[in-house]
Amino acid sequence: MPDTSTTPDTPTSASPEAPTPTAALLRVAILAGGLSHEREVSLRSGNRVMGVLKHLGHTVVMLDVDARTIPSLKAFSPDVVWPLVHGGHGEDGGLQNVLIALGLPYVGTHSDGCQRASFKPTAKASVRAAGVLTPDSVTLPKAYFSQLGAQEVLGVVASHLGLPVVVKPNQGGSGLGVSYASDADELRTAMVSCFAYDERALIENYVEGTELAVSVVDTGDGPRALPPVEVVSQGRYDFDARYNPGRSEYFVPARLDSESLERVQEMAVTVHRTLGLGNISRTDLILDANGQPWFIDVNVIPGMTEMSLFPMAAKAAGDLPQLYDRLVHSPAVHC
Question: Nearest Cα to 89, choosing from 29, 31, 34, 168?
C-alpha cells in the first residue's frame, strides 16, 4: 500500500499554478480541534482542507473551537464556515446550531440531520424503517450496570443477541471505544473500554464480511456516491489502524463486481437521503459473503486527513481540490 502521507491533496511546488476555482474567491473559516477525544484527528483534517483551499486562492483561517471562536468568527466575517470538529461535540448538531444563530452559511448538514445521524441507535432505527439492513442491537446506559448488576445485564444481552458482538459508544467515531467480543470475558472488557468514551453503549451483532466506506457528496444537484473504499486491516480497524501507516490497506474502488458496487452505493445514498444529510456523509457498511450489505454507521463530518477514507474516494472520483471548491461555493445550510 502506498504511504498516503506522501501524496498530498494539493499540487507540488513544481506545479505552474493553482487550479482555477469554479467561482469567486471566498473567505472561509474552518472550525477544528475542540475538546473531543478526536481532537488531534480534527486538527489534521482542518489543516489538510485549509491547505487545499488556500492553494485555490481562498482566504482561509482555521479556528480551534474554544471561548474565542465566536468573537473570531465575527471579526473574520467569513463567507462560509467548514466545521471539521469530529466526534459527539462536533457532529451532534450543537455547533451547527451556533452557526445558524450567527447567520453563517456552512458546509455539512443542518443540525436536525446531525442529531439523527450522530446518535447511532437513532440512525439505525431510521434507516431500518427505510428498508436498509442493519445488525440487531441493544443500547444501554452505564447506570444500568450498577443498578441491575453488570453480570446479570451482560448475561441477558449475550443471551438475546448471541455472540460475537461489537460494542461501541453511542456517539463518536475513529474507532475509539469500539471492541469485538466473542465471549463473556471479552464482553465485560469491551464495556469498560466503551464507557471510557460515552455513558451509553451500543451492542450489536457482529457481521463478518468486507469492510467498506461509501462517501456521498451533494454540491447542489442531489446526492451522489463516490467510489467505495475497501478496507483490509491487520487485526481490527481501530484508531491505530486508521491513522498510522502500515496497519491497513485500501482499495479504491473496492474490489467488487459491478452489481455489488452499485448496491453499496445505492445504500449510502439511501442513508444520506433518509437521515436528511447535507453536503457530505460517509456510510460504513459490511458486505457479507452472500453479497448483502449491512449498514454499520454514518458520519456527517468524516475525516479529511492524509489517511482518511473520504479524500481517497474523492481522489478516485476525479479532482479533489475542485470538489472542495464546489463544496464551499454550495454550502448545505444557508443562513
Answer: 34
